[in-house]
Amino acid sequence: MLVAKNEQGRSVHLLEQQAVDGQAFFCPGCGGPVRLRKGEVMRPHFAHISLKNCHYFSENESEQHLQLKTSLYQWALQDSQAELEKRLPEIEQIADVFINDKLVLEIQCSSLPIRRLQERTYSYQQAGYRVVWLLGKDLWLKKRLTNLQRQFLYFSHRLGFFLWELDREREKIRLRYLIHEDLHGQVQCLTQEFPLGVGNLLTILRFPYQGKKVAVLKGRLDRQIREYLARQLYHQSPKWMGIQAQLYQEGGNLLTQTLDDFYPQIRLPESTIGFAQIEQDLSAYYAHFWEYYQQLDCKTEQYLYSPAFYQIKSRKKLGQ
Ligand SMILES: [Zn+2]
Question: From the CA of 270, how far away is ligand 1's center (Å)?
Answer without folding.
Answer: 36
